[in-house]
Amino acid sequence: MTPGQPNHEAKTKALQAEDLELLSKMLAEDGIEVVAPPEIPARDSIDPPPASHAQRRLWFVEQWRPGLPTYNIPLRVHLWGALDVGILERSVHALVARHEALRTTISTDKGELVQVIVESAAVSLAVEDLTGGEAAVLERRIAEEARRPFDLAKGPLLRVWLWRLGWAGVLAVRIRRYIWLRLLALGVLRSVLGVWRI
Questions:
Q1: Contact (CB, 8 A) for 185 and 100
Q2: Three-state DSSP class for residue 79
């Protein structure tokens, strides 16, 4: 954040607090009591959380048919105009740092299948220039990357590519389904794409 630039997160929290206070006053005027919701306790960081039922099923499939791309989620976004690749890459890193679901792998601990959540994950932005190439070349590259297997135990379980096509670009994101990307996280990924363009 540059000096003098407003802190977006602090402004958002302040706005939320103002909105909640106003809402509480309006409800109180109507005789409705506002009860604070119970706090969600922080997860114990000492013991790894157990794998969910969906994660266990995917782990079983991976042991039975390693490298099967069926459970990958490919996303494609077409970008037009000038693009700052540095900002895009920093956005990818910030996204991964913010959401532990994108830093989670699956492993066994004392005979139990568990989620391993790391503090940081090295997710890089792969950039390839296909300017002047045919559309079939792009489609072939996307298909090749979509079939590349993930290692569930090692990670990272998110891959991001940018294929440049002159003044346009295609951003492709691929991630393992059920384990690391819930529908909410999918919405987060799509919404963040809006800030990657300049």
A1: no
A2: strand
Nearest by Cα to 65 from 149, 179, 180: 149
Tally of domains within the chain: 1
* CA dist., res. 14 & res. 12, Å (int): 5
| Cβ–Cβ under 8 Å, residues 152 and 61 | no
pLDDT per residue as tens digits for the range 11-32: 556 657 777 788 778 878 888 8
Pair of tokens at residue 170: 């295609």
Q: pTM (2 decimals)?
A: 0.66
Phi-psi region of 50 (alpha: psi -120 to 50; beta: other; left: phi over 0): beta
Asked if 115 and 178 count as a contact pair (C-beta separation under 8 A), the reply is no
Say if 89 falls within a structural domain. yes
Task: Compute the distance between CA of residue 108 and CA of residue 92 in angstroms, rounded to an integer.
Answer: 28
Give strand pairing partners of 80.
Answer: 168
- Residue 6 domain flag: no
Q: Is the pLDDT score of 114 beyond 90?
A: yes
Domain extent at residue 55:
42-195
